Amino acid sequence: MNEAVRNPAKPTPGPTKGPIIEIENLSISFFTRKGEIPAVMDFSCTVMPGEAMGIVGESGCGKSTVSLGIMRDLSNIGKIVGGKIKFQGKDMGELSDEELRSIRGNKIAMIYQEPMASLNPAMKVGQQLMEVPLIHDKVSKEEAYKRALDMVRSVKLPDPERMMRSYPHQLSGGQQQRIVIAMALLSKPALLLLDEPTTALDVTVEAGIVDLVKGLGEKFGTSMIFVSHNLGLILETCDRITVMYSGEAVETGKIKDVFDRMRHPYTQGLFRSIPLPGADKNSRPLISIPGQLPLPHERPKGCNFGPRCHHFVEGVCNAAEIPMIEVAGHEGHFSRCVRFNEIDWEALPPGAKKVNERVMPGAPVLKIEDLRKYYRVGGSEVFGSSEGRVVKANETISFMARESETVAIVGESGCGKSTLAKVLLGLETASAGTVTLGNTEIQSTGIDKRSVDTVSSIQMVFQNPFDTLNPSHSVGSQIIRTLEKFNVGKTVADRRKRMLELLDLVKLPRAFETRKPRQLSGGQKQRIGVARAFAGDAKVVVADEPVSALDVSVQAAVTELLMDIQRKNKTTMLFISHDLSVVRYIADRVVVMYLGYIVEQGTTDQIFAPPYHPYTEALLSAIPIADTSVVKKHIVLEGDIPSAMNPPSGCPFQTRCGYKKLVPDNLCETKVPPVKHLGDGHMSLCWLSDDVLAKMEPVIKFDKEHAAHEGMPDDASHGDGPGFAGTPPKRPRGKRPS
Amino acid sequence: MPVQYISGFTVVFEVLSRFWPVWIALVIVMGASFAYKKKLALYGQLFDSGVGIVGVGICLFWLFTAIFAATISPFDPLAQIPIMKDVLPGAVEPQSGLTYLFGGDKLARDVFSRMVYGSQIVLIIAPAATGFALMVGITLGLPAGYYGGKIDTVLSFLANLVLAFPVILLFYLLVTPGIMDTPIPYGMAGVFFLFPIIFFSVLFWTRYKNRPDRLYILLGITLILGGWIYLGLVFDKDPLHIVHIDPNQLNIFVAVVFASSPGVFRIVRGLVMDIKTRDYVAAAQTRGESPWYIMLWEILPNARGPLIVDACLRIGYTTILLGTLGYFGLGLAPESPDWGTAIKDASRLLRSFIHPALPPTIALMSFVLGLNLLADSLREQSMKD
Ligand SMILES: Nc1ncnc2c1ncn2[C@@H]1O[C@H](COP(=O)(O)OP(=O)(O)OP(=O)(O)O)[C@@H](O)[C@H]1O
Ligand code: SF4
Ligand code: SF4
Ligand SMILES: [Mg+2]
């Protein structure tokens, strides 16, 4: 029976030859006490057997609601108010509860963002996996065990026997997610729904899952609906894409069509606001989409995107509700825009063409030398045992940041970025080494002992916009309190004036003074966070993933704002991030961290070009890039990041490094490598010899062929058909000088 | 001379009309609240649901009853008019011509008036004791949750110790005459009543340290007012002779605060442990705020939702507790009209006369019910955003 796993059946012949799932004009509403919230309106899509459909959109646009609608799992307040979902040709609305349940368990499987939501914490993984064939196929125990084990192997988990014997909490997040996928696949579903399956994971772990998911269609013949907010991920995993905006699908088509020849201004806006390779903070800044998503019950008449669209025309765009309009010449490409034939797809929105002068970094402001931070854990206090283990959160950190320079600190969870930030800000004191801010050493002065001057000159912008402002106090009073703490202004009136100026600085209306944080959107809150950090004329601002929790269309605006203020105030910025695309865009210099060590540092150009440190190379390859012309070297790291409690001996990266075998004498496993100077301040922590380094190839390359053809879609004749009126469209993004 | 009776219908009508000041006050307050509910934040949102309106209505009803007790009740709650002993509801007292609306009890007192006056006692002691318990619980719970470690271990241990002790037994101990003669109750009162003064002083100090103009005024008010009440309550030495509490009541009061502050402590501690991980707390730390500022101004305001709900429920428990204590004769003076004592008195003769027991029982039930409804709807509303 387990050939079903090894060479799984192509989709069963017969009724499934047609589409697996057909969604026609689906509308879903939530009925709350405040009235009806139309979460999804008029959504259509079709998924063929073995095909992967990606759904992208910003938070609240209804992506998850669509997938829950397919599962018919809309709690008691959600209702399908219109349209049909046909699964393998059968209308799901007409099925009995019994039939629905069997489809849900057998033929459609769903994978959520949080793996633990689908696992039973009290049951061994093996048992949970075996239950699926035991219940569904009523096979014997041995058979079930065999199938489960095979499946664990095919989701590429190391040491499958041991995995089967573990409890979910003994596995890492990435491994848990693999188990959930294995569990879903065991029931041999025809359709797999994945709702942000990797959002909770680290990039290098995400890359592994993406790799696994990509192969599923071919290997198991499973169709997929992949919900994500990340265009790059969709590009890597899917064949077709549907872009959603405010409850509607606004554009759908083949990946290539939508990515290269998009026909909806919102899609274009999305692409323009993400830092693709080629964007540059000085000469080609990001272009954000103005405004914000309308609330579901306050959508405008006509085009939902109207209020934020540069091409809006009164009386055309808001005359009537807009259907999906086919783009001629493209197969299955639809757009919900009435003007896509008339729009000049290359024009930049007014005021977007600003070029900033490059700012030269000045004198060093922050110097960190050989910084170490160890935490003592365990060793119960009650019994007074001093044993306890030591967690080395930061090891020999040395780098320097100059005036008006942006230094990015890159690394995945647990690499010690946040500990470093805490030491800099004085929330923790260093175990050894020095941190010099201006002329003062601050490594061992806790925040309560720092002078007001020191405190105000190093400040922080936090990651989670929904958490950085105290929900109980008004926006104005929170800024004023900060000013008061920093001794800015003598009287209350002085400070209020300064607070209003700060609101101007972050481009918020002064009326926000009296607002409570819950009345602000995520982006607006983050702006207040920025205002607060710059309130005392900070010399150094530590920004901890300041935009990662924001919607793509808002990210660009906040990033640009942060850089504008930095440029004006000549502030030094430490930009903590795991996203190398943003880093390449924003940073002057980059510091790559892994397990408490700095493994590589140098200017942005040095980091993004070979020779790489093996970890940097893997990190670069793991980042999903939403550009069809980019070809990446494919490196998938094995395993997960080791725990800092139990670090490997020798090189911190040795458990996952692919280059280890090129180093003689087993040095990697025994000795921490020395810092290798590669010239011009480029440093790397690795044993690799110069000739190996010299042979490294760039990870990210532009596909020459693609670039040559761009602007000349070869599947369409130019000049005729509504999609290509006038001059043939060139690359619509204006993202790279060709 | 036989006692005259009025009809059942007239009794109902009379009762309703005796409450006239309450009705007027209710209409004004509820009407105004309803009209301006948009501007009244959480309190205004209560008026969005039926449960909330009923809850607020019942609680306000008893509040106004307590305020207007003198106008509402036809008789002195302690006065005994021998002829009216054990009379049934609706008996007319011949001298004044007024009616014992709910009859008379075994000491010939007017049950209706006693119920009305009883509300005064309940509505003062229960919320005030809860208020003090909140002060104690918050002031200790904040550092326990915020610092953790040794402080937390010690305080939590003490709290658990108190919680593990059977409440009734605790009260027996605290309210027995032997203990009442020792300085223990006054000692405890001295400690408990210090907490609000400490709480408010620290509250204002942390916030207005750099703004002496405000600070001195607020601290001055706190210290003078607090000191004055403290003198009156603990030492009974109020120079103006306004603040005064019977030793008996003080005892009950202290016992109730003692029994319910560990509960508050635990809730506050849990909330603080959760809230202190938020970024806005980190933001406050990075701008150099002192720990007590963070606890009182950054964390506490965000814990208010669950605390308000808890306070409502706790006032209810305390009311029941007072009733129970009264029932065991542990409570207030034997002739006190509070509901618990009244139920106890009436229960002795339950087999011959049921009417004296009913009004205080129903009063107690309805008040606790009102508080629970209020708590429920507060919880629901605060979950909304
Ligand atoms: N249970 C619910 N009750 C009321 N409204 C809801 C409910 N669930 C979702 N909504 C509303 O429906 C809309 C679509 O929500 P949905 O969760 O599908 O968005 P999403 O695209 O998945 O967003 P995210 O990227 O944040 O996951 C939102 O406006 C949301 O507020
Ligand atoms: S219909 Fe009009 S407003 Fe809507 S996207 Fe197209 S051009 Fe913009
Ligand atoms: S030292 Fe060895 S294990 Fe470490 S990164 Fe270099 S090659 Fe890899
Ligand atoms: Mg979602």
From TrEMBL, chain A:
* Compositionally biased intervals (Basic and acidic residues): 707-718
Q: Where is this region: Disordered?
A: 707-738
Recorded GO cellular component terms are: plasma membrane
User: What is the organism lineage in this UniProt record?
Assistant: Bacteria, Pseudomonadati, Pseudomonadota, Alphaproteobacteria, Hyphomicrobiales
Chain ranges passing through the membrane? none
Q: List this protein's GO terms for biological process.
A: peptide transport; transmembrane transport
The record's section on InterPro entries has: AAA+_ATPase, ABC_Ni/Peptide_Import, ABC_transporter-like_ATP-bd, ABC_transporter-like_CS, Oligopep_ABC_C, P-loop_NTPase
- What protein am I looking at? Oligopeptide/dipeptide ABC transporter, ATPase subunit
Please list the residue ranges annotated as the ABC transporter domain: 21-271, 366-620
What species was this sequence derived from?
Mesorhizobium ciceri biovar biserrulae (strain HAMBI 2942 / LMG 23838 / WSM1271)
Where in or outside the cell it occurs: the entry states: Cell inner membrane
TrEMBL record, chain B:
User: What is the recorded membrane topology of this protein?
Assistant: Multi-pass membrane protein
GO BP terms in the entry: transmembrane transport
Instruction: Note the Gene3D superfamilies from the entry.
Output: MetI-like (1.10.3720.10)
Q: Which UniProt keywords apply?
A: Cell membrane, Membrane, Transmembrane, Transmembrane helix, Transport
Q: Which SUPFAM superfamilies match?
A: MetI-like
The keyword Transport belongs to this UniProt entry's keyword annotation: yes
Q: Which PROSITE patterns match?
A: ABC_TM1
Sequence ranges assigned to domain ABC transmembrane type-1 in this UniProt record: 119-375
Where, subcellularly, is it found?
Cell membrane
Give the residue spans that cross the bilayer: 20-37, 49-72, 121-142, 154-174, 186-208, 215-235, 250-268, 311-333, 353-375
State any GO CC term. plasma membrane
To which protein family does this belong?
Belongs to the binding-protein-dependent transport system permease family.
Q: What is this protein called?
A: ABC transporter permease
Q: Which organism is it from?
A: Mesorhizobium ciceri
